[in-house]
Amino acid sequence: MDKLLPFLCRVLPANTEALADMALDLRWTWNHGGDKLLEMLDPEAWQLTRNPWWILQSISQERIEKPAGSAEFQEELKRLMAVCQDYVQRSGWFKEKEFDKSLGIIEESRGNHFDPEVTDAFLAIEEEIVSIKEKYQDET
């Protein structure tokens, strides 16, 4: 986290430095669990850009400080950072050799680590995925 702070054009309020990590973590581009938090900073800017780094760099200091001081914002930030830590520390679906285990992890992570709509679309074509897996199984 501290390594990223020099790249910001501003000093973030106390207890919000994790926003810099979040803004640069590409995981949050496909997992929209953090959208609510970023929208709390500046709803209009979030709706227009959906770009966390731009928001941290561009909105006024007051727009960051006001919501960042609320208990709701701090709780949501803590929750998201815990989700991120869990994700990083887990073995992950991509490390599993057993297909059923991988699908179980993906399904378990629906709404937390994976966008629900993407997860549903993926699980809807499970038979096709199994077919591809079986076709290329000898190549792995």
Provide tags for this entry:
140 residues, 63% helix
Structure description:
- The model has no long low-confidence stretch (mean pLDDT 83).
- The longest helix has 19 residues, at 71-89.
- The protein folds into two domains: 5-89, no CATH class; 94-139, no CATH class.
- It is elongated, with a radius of gyration of 18 Å.
- It has ten helices and no strands.
- It has helices at residues 18-24, 27-30, 35-41, 43-49, 52-58, 61-68, 71-89, 99-108, 116-124, 126-135.
- It is mainly alpha-helical and 140 residues long.
SSE topology sketch:
Layout: H1 18-24, H2 27-30, H3 35-41, H4 43-49, H5 52-58, H6 61-68, H7 71-89, H8 99-108, H9 116-124, H10 126-135
Helix pairs in contact: 3-4
Nearest-angstrom radius of gyration?
A: 18 Å
Please provide the ordered H/E string of secondary-structure elements. HHHHHHHHHH
Distance between the termini: 36 Å
Tally the helices: what do you get?
Answer: 10
- Backbone structural class: mainly alpha
Residue runs with pLDDT of under 50 for 5 or more positions: none
Helix content: 55-70%
Q: Strand fraction band? A: under 5%
**Number of folding domains?**
2
